[in-house]
Design goal:
With about 400 residues, the chain is an alpha/beta fold. It contains 15 helices and eleven strands. A seven-stranded mixed β-sheet has the order 7-6-5-8-9-11-10. The chain has a four-stranded mixed β-sheet with strand order 2-1-3-4. It starts with a helix and ends in a 29-residue tail after the last strand. GO terms for molecular function: methyltransferase activity. This is Cyclopropane-fatty-acyl-phospholipid synthase.
Length: about 400
């Protein structure tokens, strides 16, 4: 079987070595950078149709191991799937119901894994969303601070304003906005572990009088026009297509007339949401983000517009996320021994494949990520936004100086 596989795949000239349990091996191209150590010989037959979800699942089940860079391994796996898996139009994926219990369980599955585990590969502020790279060689920590400030500048935050942070995570944005821009922040999350650490950091930095964080579903927000600005980062991927109108309606209700709403989230490549990358989406849905759904940019803009929010600025950060995920993947690989002490082997393998796979996917335009800025118009339809974006990109000032 090994010889047969080598004969069928040799023309691809992949930098890949296959090794069998007994020690036999075959190179599928010159100077292999990646070695797949096959523990289950039956896997050789499956390599005839190597979809990305099938390969990822085999790795998770320890039917094979990867030697070499996991980022390189993802590239090799994609070349295999592109060559051997027939393209089929799967159509748009089904849309799951998203009630409070389902969403809370999905959030707990992903985000409550271990704060210490996430700390191994995130930046010091533990910002779990894409950074903003002014230069490709920016450090992860610098890129994340730049992203936090980029959001605050787009929101035109001013001292004394009230900011609602929907899906506040470990509180990095809340702390930055409070410290650098002097705003009052109300953050909500469904992750108990994130909330615990976020509150500890708020207290340690003496920000308790400016930041309130709580465990709350966005659907349980009460009142109207409570906030000057609203921000949601990495949240609407969990909302579900069916709930997008209600989600943006609530954000519209919460912001004051003339106020801004920023939605920062991953978006689908195709307008109908059909998957890209032979099985990559199926793998993520099964093992990483249960019930996650990626709307297309057009879907998000329509849902916002239908609820009375006027979209005034859209920015793609796709290549920024590819760089961010490469940093995360390298950090996790460099800290694998420490990670193995915090999560089980199955979880560690899932995250190794997920981070490297997403870095590859964003770099290949399998999905995108957009910051969508909208305004709730004043009565009569006006607003007080500047005529240009110049204020967002002012250089040579400290964070927030232009808005105080």
């Amino acid at each position: 079987m090994l010889a047969q596989l080598a004969a069928s795949l040799g023309a691809l000239k992949l930098p890949l070595r296959l090794t069998l349990p007994g020690g036999g091996s075959v190179d599928l191209g010159p100077s292999p950078r990646v070695e797949l150590q096959i523990h289950d010989p039956a896997l050789l037959e499956e390599l005839q149709t190597p979809s990305l979800d099938r390969l990822g699942e085999a790795f998770i089940q320890q039917r094979m191991d990867i030697r070499g860079s996991v980022l390189d391994a993802i590239g090799v796996a994609d070349r295999l799937s592109q060559a051997l898996v027939r393209d089929e139009d799967e159509g748009p994926p089904p849309h799951d119901p998203h009630d409070r219990q389902t969403d809370a369980e999905a959030i707990a599955y992903h985000y409550d894994l271990s704060n210490d585990f996430y700390a191994l590969w995130l930046d010091p502020e533990m910002v779990y969303s894409c950074g903003y790279f002014r230069h490709p060689d920016d450090t992860l920590a610098k890129a994340q601070v730049q992203k936090l400030d980029h959001l605050c500048r787009k929101l035109r935050l001013r001292s004394g304003q009230r900011l609602l942070d929907v899906g506040c995570g470990w509180g990095g944005l809340a702390r930055h906005a409070a410290k650098e821009y002097g705003v009052q922040v109300h953050g909500i999350t469904l992750s108990r572990q994130q909330l615990k650490l976020a509150r500890e950091r708020v207290a340690a930095q003496g920000l308790g009088d400016r930041i309130q964080l709580e465990l709350r579903d966005y659907r349980d927000l009460t009142g109207k026009e409570n906030y000057d600005k609203v921000v949601s980062v990495g949240m609407f991927e969990h909302v579900g297509h069916a709930n997008l109108p209600a989600y943006f309606q609530i954000l519209h209700q919460q912001v004051k007339p003339g106020g801004l709403v920023m939605n920062h989230g991953i978006t689908a490549r195709h307008t109908d949401g059909r998957p890209v990358g032979h099985g990559a989406g199926a793998f993520i849905a099964r093992y990483v983000f249960p019930h996650g759904e990626l709307p297309h940019l057009a879907t998000a803009v329509k849902a916002m517009s239908d609820q009375g929010l006027e979209v005034v600025d859209v920015e793609s950060l796709r290549m920024h996320y590819a760089l961010t995920l490469e940093h995360w993947s390298r950090n996790l690989e460099a800290n694998r021994d420490a990670a193995a002490a915090l999560v089980d082997e199955r979880a560690l393998r899932i995250w190794r494949v997920y981070l490297a796979g997403c870095a590859y996917g964003f770099s290949r335009n399998w999905m995108n990520i957009h910051q969508i800025l909208a305004v709730k118009p004043l009565p009569g339809g006006g607003h007080h936004l500047p005529l240009t974006r110049d204020d967002i990109y002012l250089q040579g000032r400290g964070a927030g100086d232009s808005q105080r």
